Structure to design on (1156 residues):
């Protein structure tokens, strides 16, 4: 044989699961999307068509629903239970990945008060928990957020950059800066991941707002990361992926008009992307998914 | 010639435009998407390739940006100005449609206070203004909302429906009901459309929440419409399109577990769709787009 | 009561259904998405929460699967059977709409020959059948296509259009023209809808290609419609919705380069939209969905 | 300072670029989407807001258009030129990534012959070229494909898998198997990447078709990879990501009907995902993006 099976893993994506928890007629609604992967001694599955080691991806789905019957205390705790169960159920697996996306809902306001059992999607991004575990190790559980859009109308400059013959971008000392924050972070053992799921994005976005001396998305990325590290002692590193969602000042001179930073075209593509990790001294960033 | 040109119209979709209004360092950010159509005496454009009557769709785009230089007082007022300008600029046009979608942003909270110039997308649906105007008539301006998701975990039944040989759905007296409200409404002349853009969806969603005796999405649609008509004297009719976003109770018996209305599968497709108009006595609903 | 129930209808969207038909080991794969609406005497469902007239949307889904057991001879024939069954099963319904989207698959080529039971999505748009029927009438069945992208690199001009103070578009006698054709057409009784589902788009796209004297998308829309009417005697009218997918000549002069119609930026938004119906003499266009 | 800048890179995504090459009135249309990333000595950009090392992402965009003026000989050749230019233009960069997605178009058929300058999107997936280069090294250029859907109606089994208490999936010896192939492959130096861009997916899909003894998606993944390695001596490894797009046999017994493998529900979510690399003896797989 000239072709060997190399790295491989398998699992299920897009498992959508919701639970209702009742305290009288005050309800709590939890809404999740779960992804699972297993890796291990699955070579014969590929090479020989031997399915005996395969815990089916349909069983992974069923496991999520069965475990949810005991309640979702928190996405991180659920990810731990799920990972543990999957390793028990699949002796051939040596590594498991679990990712849990939360759809955050907030109570609808009725007559000035939050309703007891009616909800709407909350503003802000989507919490993400990523767990990676070797069979004989402790799970590494990372917090995260996805899709947290934010925009500032001033306090952002971009100038004094490198010029070459293909550079036409005019420098500016006052522009709109907008991004959709995706972030993943590591924590010390025993950290309260549920509390950090709200607190870390809040810290990052507040720093985005107050970083009035921003020279670039990179500059603000570091400011956000540093604020997170300084504010939350449990966070050991944070990795950002920040698109630069361009708002382009429209040239109104053909219409005989000026445009003193008031009218902007909202662009879709292309868009800049800034990726970077800020790391607490003495720590290193783990790899996630 | 055996083939004549019938009904036609043309225009521009997807015009994305944002403005910043400054009051010291307290800024207001307005973010819109605009659609335009014109109809009229454009037969020769099609049949003969005679472009002389054509106000180009690129000019429609430019007109939006140029008019925005004077500020966006409100989406409805902007739609009126735009429609008027387009009829002036296009003598061949006899009818104009303008639709303005708003992207609502809210201030990011920093240290417990709303920030002066940093924003994130607000929860809730997207306001929509639809204007239709004949050259010699008054514009008909309709309010609307798009994409307002809402979900209740109780107070919703579906039973006693018609049975036939292909009916397998079990009746239930307690289910999750979820939808994403799209609505359009008409108003009396002089109504405050900007205030209604917030108030009408709030009334409809509050009624969704309190309609604890719901027998169906249809039943709640009418309750929502009636609440809007009764609460807002300026609203003459309201049309809803309400998908029924199914949350399906998972059968856990194969796993030896019960499921007392706690664990749900969130379905994507297929989905029910309920469309209906509630009309104030003595009025009729206009056609929109 | 001040608020009455006006126009309403209900149904199911997104019913995804596939069938396999076997002739030895040569298989035929049919892949559909179905939408259904019913209207009629459903006022009490809304106003009183009386579900007795409601054929549930889940039953609509089940009906599709049950009827498919007898085979999908053609999307149009299936739509007729489905509409008939739904009216029989729902005495309160007076009108039914059925829309069937086809996902076209073609055989994968293996060793130069089409494989007997392996398929990939075919190029070209998606056939659509739309049926509207009153209880006591004959069904009106319309053909259609959705998403048929096409692009020509020459033979398209746009010039001599109306100028106003907000017009900045330069006229051109040679540009890229691109669109994604959506079309719906009516036919005489007894027409072979299945044959026309392929033939009408082919005729329209061929005319798009050969219409070298195009002065605008409107001009080509009419040429396409006329070609369809002249080529297919069974087609009584055809309605197009044609986005103008802009390919913008990049200004390379800042880089010290010319650009003799060679390098283009592919734009997303905004985009033009041209809507128009071409009608055979003595006929009128029906309303579809 | 307690927080240091760790790994980082930046660039542009979504650069859409098309070119027309003319040979008389026979035209060639090339349509690309390009992604770029740079990494290197950009710490001060983040920490100090020093933009002097920054080649702006807008300049990356301009560079694509300027280089395209000399023609796109092939996506791989263009990626090489682009990477080389970007390293020259950015002395602080030590590593560059370039990814080029092709939108394949085919000629529209008119009167039985391919038209000279009119095109429609071709069936099949989208070719992808990924280049990674260290400043002082040779570029590693990988081929790939994205979005190549394929489906077989027989010749696929899934049985004899591991059972646990949450397993409810019935084993089957005859099912529909469907996937959307994403693949990346490495090659020996000097390989004809342009020829392989067509040939590798064709080999993989043909093997998908002929692998009638498939016991699982994993089993077919390996068969596809092995066929590629055996057929194309220049390919050193190939990595697949294969969703398992479930087609679920509908239970028609509630309707009093059997279902002898004829009527299927097409599912969206959840879906299985199988990832695996097949490696030629003596080689190892590179990391791509």
């Amino acid at each position: 044989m000239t072709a060997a099976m190399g790295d491989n893993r398998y699992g299920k994506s897009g498992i959508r699961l919701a639970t209702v928890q009742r305290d009288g007629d005050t309800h709590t609604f939890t809404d999740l999307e779960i992804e699972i992967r297993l890796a291990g001694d699955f070579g014969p599955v590929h090479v020989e068509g031997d399915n005996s080691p395969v815990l089916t991806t349909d069983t992974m789905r069923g496991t999520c629903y069965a475990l949810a019957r005991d309640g979702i205390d928190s996405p991180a705790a659920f990810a731990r239970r799920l990972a543990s169960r999957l390793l028990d159920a699949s002796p051939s697996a040596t590594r498991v990945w679990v990712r849990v996306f939360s759809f955050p809902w907030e109570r609808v306001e009725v007559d000035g008060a939050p309703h007891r059992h009616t909800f709407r999607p909350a503003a802000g991004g989507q919490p993400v928990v990523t767990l990676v575990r070797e069979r004989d190790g402790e799970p590494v559980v990372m917090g995260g957020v996805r899709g947290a859009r934010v925009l500032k109308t001033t306090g952002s400059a971009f100038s004094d950059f490198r010029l070459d013959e293909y550079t036409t971008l005019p420098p500016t000392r006052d522009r709109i800066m907008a991004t959709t924050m995706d972030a993943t972070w590591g924590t010390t053992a025993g950290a309260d991941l549920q509390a950090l799921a709200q607190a870390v994005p809040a810290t990052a976005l507040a720093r985005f707002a107050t970083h009035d001396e921003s020279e670039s998305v990179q500059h603000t990325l570091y400011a956000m990361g540093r604020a997170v590290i300084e504010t939350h002692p449990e966070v050991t590193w944070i990795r950002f992926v920040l698109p630069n969602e361009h708002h382009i000042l429209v040239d109104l001179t053909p219409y005989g008009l000026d445009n003193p930073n008031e009218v902007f075209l909202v662009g879709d593509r292309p868009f800049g992307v800034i990726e970077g990790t800020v790391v607490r001294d003495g720590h290193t960033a783990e790899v996630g998914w």
